[in-house]
Structures are given as structure tokens and as C-alpha cells.
Amino acid sequence: MELALQNMPPYKRWWYKFLSLGLFPSIYSVIAFGYIGIPTEIQEMVRRQISPSIRVELLEFWPLDDWFTALFISALICAIWSGVGGYKTRSLLKSAYRRINGENEQLLEDVQQLQEKNESNAINCYELFSRYIFNNYFSKFELSSNERISLYKLDMDLFLCVGRHSDNELYRTRPSRLYPRNIGCIEKIWQTGYFQDVNPHDPETELVSWKQYNIDEFSFDTETLDNIKMKSRALQGFRIRNRQTETVAVLVFESIKAEGLKLSRIKNAMTPREMANLCHLLESLDSHMPSLEMASSEGF
Questions:
Q1: Which residues cross the membrane (predicted)?
Q2: What are phi and psi of 271, to 5 degrees?
Q3: pTM of the full predicted structure?
Q4: What is the domain range of residue 179?
Q5: Are residues 151 and 262 in the same domain?
Q6: For 114-146, how does the pLDDT look when each residue is reduced to its tens digit (9 = 90+)?
């Protein structure tokens, strides 16, 4: 149920959780209608089980006929609640099943395509991961040309970009260098597992302050900042670990707008299951990706 409700607004999650409690009103409606339907003599026997003083107080509050009317109406409401809740819950779970099944089919299709490319020795891992990033994250979170997503694989304390997507052609350019682990937001992500930050300075109007913030917070130097094509303000990153809890990669979301990333929505969607899927894909293609020894020949 929780998996089906993830990424929904809070009011929708509470509404579906409320409807999913239909078991209790269902039991109540069965008991209430059962009581209404039994012979009058048995109804009286049941009522006698209630303390006489309480019965007197109840009858002073409402006549017996009104109590029967209230019992009937409440039982009817609970029956409707149970029916609608069960229908909505089943529909939600079916929808979640179709979505997850679709994601698995897409992943299987990508793997099959890789196998076909493997047979011809023509696997383009960068292209595959860039397409994976677009299909599973960029489109899902409805990001724009102001945003970019990059996947960096750890290799001997250096990070190599193995996949990237942005609708802005300038930002989606494949980087031609390796990234030190101890500089930038990558270091924060590698250390803590999750990191987000919003630069309070707009580089278009406060370039000096924007640079100083990155120097203070991320240990950049001025020359590096001058050469950065995408002057990001919002950052969000996730550490990807394998089953041995070893860091294998980091996934970084960036935006040149302070409010360009839906930080809470992205964080909720990056579940352990999602990161495990990405880790499995990385591990399955590890032998096909360039190592540091191959980096120079690959143009990095």
C-alpha cells in the first residue's frame, strides 16, 4: 500500500488510507443490519444485556424508533464506505502493479538491448544510462531545460560521469574530465548518503557572491567556477551502494533556479528499491564501462 501511495500529495495519501479502513465499517454494517433483521423478541433479549440505567438514559435522549433509524443510516453509510473503499483500494493497487510491472518491463527491455549490443561488441553505456535517467527520473519529475541529472561512477576515489540528461543541449554535454571525490557536492553525497542545498545567490545578478558561496561550501577554486557551464543554484544528490554497503556511484540533480527541483517529491521517490535497481544495472554493466586506465582512450 505504501508503495502505491508514494509520490502522491499528502491529502490523497490520507484519503486512500481512510478508504482502506473499510474492514471496520464493513463489520459494523453486518452486525447492525443483522440486528435490525432479527425478530423483535431477540432484539429485546439483546437490549436487555445493556444496563437498565443506561437504557433509560438512551431512551430519554432518543425514542427507540429514532435509535433504529440512526442504526440503519449509520450501517448504510458504513456499508457504502466499505464498498467504495474496497473498490478504490483495489484500483489503486492494480494501478501501482501496472506501473511497477511497466518499469520492470522497461528495465528488462534495456537489458535485452544491452545483450544484443554485447553480441556485436557495441554497448554504449553512456547512452544507455542517459536514456535510463531520462525515462525514470527526468520525465517522471517533469524537469525542464533549467535542470540536469548526472550519474557518476566511483573509480579509485575519482568519479566518472557515466550518464547525463538535460533538455538544454549546453548542460547535457558529456564531461571530458574525472571529478575528485573531495570537491563539490559529490563529496557531501559520498559522505552522508543524501545531500541537498540551495545557493541563496543568483549568478546572473550576484555572480561574485555565488562564487564565494561555492568556494566556502564546496571547496571550489575560482578558475573551476569560471569554466562551469551550468551555474547551478539547487542541488540534490543520492549515494548508490551495493549489497556490501560499498559506494559505487552518486546521482545528482541540479537546477539553475532556486526552486527548480521538487526536493521532497524527488527524495520520496528515490526509495531503497529504486536505488537498488540502479545499482544492479551499474554492476551488470561494470565490465563494459571504461576504467581509469581506459579513460584517456575514451576521451575523458
A1: 18-38, 67-87
A2: -75, 165
A3: 0.59
A4: 125-298
A5: yes
A6: 556 554 444 578 889 999 999 999 999 999 999
Contact present, 250 and 240 (Cβ < 8 Å): yes
Specify the range with the lowest mean pLDDT, choosing from 80-89, 125-134, 177-186, 187-196: 80-89
Q: What is the pLDDT of residue 6?
A: 57
Same domain, 175 and 270: yes
- Residues 162, 293 within the same domain: yes
- Can you tell me which residue has the cell 551488470? 284
Read off the CATH number of the domain in which 129 is found.
3.30.450.40
Count of domains for the chain: 2
DSSP character string of 190-203: HHHSEEEEE-SS-T
Whether 219 is covered by a domain: the verdict is yes
- Of 153, 107, 155, 105, which Cα lies nearest the Cα of 128? 107
pLDDT at 44: 79
Please tell me the distance from the alpha carbon of residue 38 to that of residue 35, in angstroms, as a whole number.
Answer: 6
Residue 113 has what pLDDT?
65
Q: Is residue 119 included in any domain, yes or no? A: no
| Residue/partner pairs of 85-91 with CB below 8 Å, 24 or more apart | 85/18, 85/19, 85/20, 85/21, 85/22, 85/25, 86/22, 88/16, 88/19, 89/1, 89/16, 89/19, 89/20, 89/22
The span from the CA of 219 to the CA of 273, in Å, is 33
Examine the domain organization and report whether 192 and 287 are in the same domain: yes
112 pLDDT above the threshold of 80: no
Specify the pLDDT at position 4. Answer: 47
Decide: 177 and 195 in contact? Cβ < 8 Å.
no
